[in-house]
Design a protein that fits this description.
This protein has helices at residues 18-27, 59-67, 87-95, 106-115, 130-140, 145-159, 174-190; strands at residues 7-11, 33-35, 39-40, 55-56, 71-78, 81-86, 99-103, 120-126, 167-170. The chain is built from 7 helices and 9 strands; from the N terminus they run βαβββαββαβαβααβα. The chain has one domain: Rossmann fold. The protein is an alpha/beta fold and 198 residues long. The protein is globular, with a radius of gyration of 16 Å. Helix 5 packs antiparallel against helix 6. Strands 2-7-1-8-9 form a 5-stranded parallel sheet, sandwiched between helices. It has a 4-stranded mixed sheet with strand order 4-3-6-5.
């Protein structure tokens, strides 16, 4: 892959508020960020649009892309429910001269960090507690109780990976979390490239 701008990864258990933080950062025009749209084999939810929220592709096509090594990272999150980052998506953003921002799960986030250690800022967004997370997920009213419990079980495992990230933001007060995220990203993109990146 040709080298381009910086990579900024935000990972967190579902309901931690990472998407809100990422949206805020995208609105800060001077950061020169572009959102990396993930590919998924699941069906669109609600008002989700193909090519905006996700690239929706069939499970069969997703497996073909895996075989062709088209992904920077991918994961089977639940059975036959795949998510991944296409290499061409990152190349598209780099070709525009922008920095790439990701809103992805912890496994994907750590894989990107491992592939581009010096270019990547990996941030873990932590909810104040698992109980608070459950309240937030229930408030969304988008999923069944069973699905919420699955997410909570997954969240406990994901929280254990937090120390592997460059920074942990505890999202107990949103305005503080937004400021902290902004400061971290500004610092990261203003760092001169290392020899590996040039």
């Amino acid at each position: 892959m040709n080298q381009g701008g910086k990579l900024i990864v935000f990972s967190a258990p579902s309901g931690s508020g990472k998407t809100t933080i990422v949206r805020h950062l995208l609105n800060e025009k001077d950061l020169n960020l572009e959102f990396s749209i993930s590919a998924t084999s699941r069906e669109p939810r609600g008002a989700e649009k193909d090519g905006v929220d996700y690239y929706f592709i069939s499970t069969e096509d997703f497996k073909k892309h895996i075989k062709n090594e088209d992904f920077l990272e991918w994961e089977e999150v639940y059975r036959d429910n795949f998510y991944g980052t296409l290499k061409k998506e990152v190349e598209r953003i780099w070709a525009e001269g922008k920095n790439v921002i990701f809103d992805i799960d912890v496994v994907g986030g750590l894989r990107i960090k491992k592939k581009f250690p010096d270019k990547t800022l990996a941030v873990f967004v932590k909810p104040p507690s698992v109980d608070e997370l459950k309240i937030r997920l229930k408030k969304r009213q988008t999923e069944t109780e069973e699905r919420i419990n699955m997410r909570i079980a997954k969240a406990s495992i994901e929280m254990a990976t937090a120390p592997q990230f460059d920074h942990i933001i505890v999202n107990d007060r949103l305005d503080n979390a937004l400021k902290e995220a902004e400061d971290l990203v500004r610092q990261h993109i203003s760092k001169p490239p290392t020899s590996e990146e040039e």
